[in-house]
Write a structure and sequence with these properties.
This protein is α/β, with parallel strands linked by helices. Helices cover 30% and strands 20% of the residues. Helix 6 crosses helix 7 and helix 10 crosses helix 11. The structure holds NADP nicotinamide-adenine-dinucleotide phosphate.
Amino acid sequence: MFTNSPLTEAVLGGAEAGELATAPLPDTYRAAFLRREDQEIFRGEPDKDVRRTLRVGEVPMPELAPDEVVVAVMAAAVNYNTVWSATFEPLPSFQFLKHVARGGGWDTRHDQDFHVIGSDASGVVVRVGAAVRHWKVGDKVVVTPGAIDEQEPAAQQDGLLAERTLAWGFETNYGAFGDYTVVKGTQLIRKPRHLSWEEAACNALCLGTAYRMLISQHGARIKMGDVVLIWGATGGLGAYAVQLVQRAGGIPVGVVGSARKAALLEKMGCRHIINRQEIGFADSADSAEESNEMDRWRALGAAIRKQVGEDPHVVFEHVGKETFGASVFVARRGGSIVTCGSSTGYAHHYDNRHLWMRVKRIIGSHGANYQESVEANRLLELGLVVPTLSRVYPFAQVADATRSVQRNEHEGKVGVLCMAPEEGLGIEDPLLREQIGEDRLRLFRDHVS
Ligand SMILES: NC(=O)c1ccc[n+]([C@@H]2O[C@H](COP(=O)([O-])OP(=O)(O)OC[C@H]3O[C@@H](n4cnc5c(N)ncnc54)[C@H](OP(=O)(O)O)[C@@H]3O)[C@@H](O)[C@H]2O)c1
């Protein structure tokens, strides 16, 4: 650890709220960040290796706004947006920070020559702004990524409708990868008591997103018996989607890219598994042009019908260009394609006849509003959904952790220890843990090891 401040020592020593509140905030803290001067580093390079841009060092502690809290981060997790940020794709994140700073006042703090990234964390509240009502120093929390402007009228209907809904640690600074982070009070949710710091840190972004896409009134609203096709079914989003469909009484059909991932999916209890490599959905970004895409779409539809006997009510999309046409094609008459991303390219191609003539719907979804995040977290607290943490890296290796996600070598979620000196700390309810079962809670880690 770089900074050994009295506050850091108090947090690590499990100090009471009074001691945490009086220990001075350090002026700087250890963090993983991008540098403005690296923005052009990958120009013309085919492999945008995130290990070249993600640095570890000290950054200044920002001043605290009245609606914010400082959280001592015990653990964090890598998201695909970490890859976007560290490759400066689709545009350098410093442009987001500049945009935020145009709000003036407190917002100007975000526009720095460094960008501390990361959008999933667990930790302990160590400072509370004067306007924060529902949280106090000492609370053990998980941070949700949605930094929503709750003063915008539209946010009262749905936080995602507010113009200034920003992804913390992606579109804002002072993200998860540090010993501290500064977030809005309305980003906090209770840490599930049966989970370790790293298990608690890995869920909010992907589980919340999958919850909104599938369960919430703003998404596909799946019901009992629905067949749901899930791309990347052991990935960050997909592995939560599988669990949500199972718990909702639906029938998940999981698509994966290797036999190893198929084996993990089987362990999750998913009966219908398609290895995309076997039906022409290779990794190449040009595969759509190289092979007859209609053949691939038909092959996917046939594989689903062979296994399940019917077409999907819902397709869970985030792969984008490589798969979207197939997703629109295979959804059943009246079905939905719910999408939140485009890893393989934003400009999608699909045959619109399949959409309109068979009265299908495309639903755009982004993150989760505060209530959806709390509801998704409750499923974790009840043990209905379990974390999908597969590997945990020490802080110094945050770039390696991100690289594994960039290269699609990971399964589920990849964690990073921040202040937590080792794995397995922070469990407050071992009895509940026992009831839920170590085998379920460790399924992804045991598969990897
Ligand atoms: N808008 C939002 O709120 C939001 C939230 C979370 C994520 N996202 C976006 O959603 C995307 C996925 O995120 P994630 O966290 O799930 O990432 P992830 O952990 O990398 O998982 C993505 C999965 O996609 C599959 N995949 C990769 N290349 C593919 C291809 N060419 N064809 C078919 N499948 C392919 C991989 O599974 P196999 O290799 O096994 O097929 C991989 O496990 C990213 O673009 C991310 O930015 C958006």
